[in-house]
Structure formats: structure tokens, C-alpha cells
Amino acid sequence: MNLSEFILEEMKKRDMSMREFSSYVGVSPTTISNTLNPQKNILPSTDFLAKLADATHTDIATLIAMVFPELTDLNPEIMLLAMRISQLHPEQQKMIRQLLMGMAMDDPDIKNQ
Fold it and tell me: Among 32, 35, 13, 10, which residue's Cα sits nearest to residue 23?
């Protein structure tokens, strides 16, 4: 997932227009528009990423990994998923761990390691 896909997902999740989302984040509509338009090839500012992280309750490292995937060994989607799981109720986290561990035990490639 890249930053523009993330923003579109967040806008959809909140049922917001680009203008509404930019106000929610605290940036100009142009900032959101430039980020959503890959042909502009404009890198987001750290100020924008910090505001976006705060507004969406997303770790800024996850957003940076979306902008610069080559700087991290972790897939941004995995980082985002891990962050979202960490925000769940502890019982829900436990269920997800159990599910993943059960799937891992059923995978012969993982079982033989």
C-alpha cells in the first residue's frame, strides 16, 4: 500500500470528501490533492505526515515506509496491519494470535523449520 492508497482508504472509511479530509487532517486540500496525484511526484512534508499520523492514529514510521518503502525491510501493509491489531481489545488480539499460530502450525514449510 502506498500513501495515496492509504489516504483514499481513510477518506472512504470516514466517508469524507477530499476537502473534508484535508480539514480533518489540518492541511490544505492542495496538499491532499498533490499526494493523491502520482504524476505530480511531490514528496509529502514531515509536517503533513505528522498531522496525518495523528489524525488517523497511525504510527508515523508506517507512513514514512509507505512513502519510502526502500528504507525499511518491513512491508508497509504489514506495519499498518500490526498497528491496527495493537489497537484492538486484548481479547481480540489474543484471538488473532491464536488464529495465526494455528495457521502457521498447519503450514508444512513453517512446521519443518
Answer: 32
Q: What is the pTM of this model?
A: 0.66
User: Residue 22's domain is classified under what CATH number?
Assistant: 1.10.260
Distance in angstroms (rounded) separating the CA atoms of residues 80 and 96:
15
Domain total for the chain?
A: 1
| Domain carrying residue 84 | 3-111
| CB distance 13 to 92 below 8 Å | no
Q: pLDDT tens for residues 52-65?
A: 999 999 888 788 88
Q: Return the higher-pLDDT residue of 95 and 79.
A: 95
Q: Which of 23, 30, 24 is nearest to 45 (CA)?
A: 30
Q: Which of 4, 61, 1 is nearest to 31 (CA)?
A: 4
